[in-house]
UniProtKB/TrEMBL annotation:
Organism in which the protein naturally occurs: Oceaniferula spumae
Membrane-spanning parts: 29-52
UniProtKB keywords: Membrane, Transmembrane, Transmembrane helix
InterPro entries assigned: DUF4230
Protein name: DUF4230 domain-containing protein
């Protein structure tokens, strides 16, 4: 049992109070800073895309869509270039004409002549061979790439070919083989005449007109910087 003096000594001792120290976490501030920086980066990329990148690439995308619609096949965009891949796509006929051809087949044997003059109507189709593909970009307001060259795609007879004049020699008689040969000459003549005409250039004009129509005023009228020889 404590005496009075011991109790007084105990009561006179200093009383210390323990305080709990609570450390505030920095995680919310770090997440807030990270989120703010992320938003700034996203906003920066978005601004670059809409105000710099997109306006620069939009004409190429528009051109690719127009070419795809006209060619009837896929034209993709690779960077700043519209690309039509090489493949067995086939041909695109844009212009057709009816024409007439006439040719003479004549041979001489032992002084004896035979003569055939044949004629016929033909349907000529002109357009483009798309199997080689192509690449086009926009440079200084013009299409930078080779303009496909319009060409004769087919020249087929309409109806039967006609024998306009036939004459057999005394010794050199006409035969069915002569008729077949004369008709082949006529078909070749019709194609040569078509290739010498302006039907290829007409197909090129139709191509440009259709591309411009599909662009619908989104770009200035298409002007090709280069073309095939």
């Amino acid at each position: 049992m404590d005496t009075i003096d011991e109790a007084a000594a105990k009561s006179s001792r200093p009383v210390t109070s323990e305080k709990a120290i609570v450390k505030k976490s920095r995680a919310p501030w770090l997440w807030a800073l990270f989120g703010g920086l992320s938003l700034l980066i996203v906003a920066g990329f978005a601004s670059f895309y809409y105000f710099v990148s997109k306006p620069a690439t939009a004409p190429v995308h528009q051109l690719a869509e127009a070419l795809s619609g006209v060619f009837g096949t896929e034209v993709t965009v690779n960077g700043s270039t519209a690309v039509l891949e090489k493949s067995e796509i086939g041909e695109l006929a844009l212009v057709q004409r009816k024409t007439q051809a006439i040719t003479k087949f004549e041979t001489t044997w032992l002084g004896s002549n035979k003569l055939l003059i044949v004629r016929g109507d033909f349907l000529v189709k002109a357009g483009f061979d798309l199997s080689e593909g192509g690449q086009w970009g926009i440079l200084e307001g013009k299409v930078n790439g080779a303009l496909p060259k319009g060409k004769v795609l087919s020249c087929e007879p309409i109806g039967d070919l006609e024998i306009y004049y036939a004459e057999s020699g005394t010794l050199n008689r006409l035969s069915p083989q002569d008729h077949a040969t004369a008709f082949n000459y006529l078909k070749n003549q019709a194609r040569r005449d078509a290739e010498r005409s302006d039907i290829g250039k007409e197909a090129e004009q139709v191509l440009l007109r259709r591309i411009n129509d599909r662009l619908s005023g989104e770009l200035d009228e298409v002007k090709w910087k280069e073309r095939l020889p």
